[in-house]
Amino acid sequence: MLIETDRLLLRPLTVADLDEVDALNAMPEVVQTMGSVERPEALVRLEANEQAWRDRGYGLMAVTERATGRFLGRSGLKYWPQFEETEVGWVLRRESWGRGFATEAGRACIDWGFAGLELPYLTAMIRPANVRSIRVAERLGMSRRRADVLFGTPVVVYRLDASKHQET
What is the value of pTM for the model shown? Predict the structure, then answer.
């Protein structure tokens, strides 16, 4: 599976990406917005992501810049069984912030999720203080639906219905 946009390539995130993911997870700005994920836990999550791709046909994706091939971060779709929902998410290296990459990757994943997977809606679970990600969700047409808790951390859940996406 490969998704191409004007500036990005998105492909399934695998255990081969562990070094890049570990470096991403070690960035203080990323830790501040996403929480800390140590390397052993990152490996477990990457293995689970590979299993999600086998089981569900979708999962998280590596985001790379088309022009350079540089790893920028991750985006994609993640099914959360405890919520019975699929989330679209994005996490990028600090130096990639403010360039529209998160919106571009998120939009590509949303388009793919609604067109190819026939999902009725998608969510985005964002820490309340993560104003930049909230703005991305709003640019993607998502609206605030509820407060919840993910991994013991309060989040605000944004949602986009497939029927609303078709109107844009």
Answer: 0.92
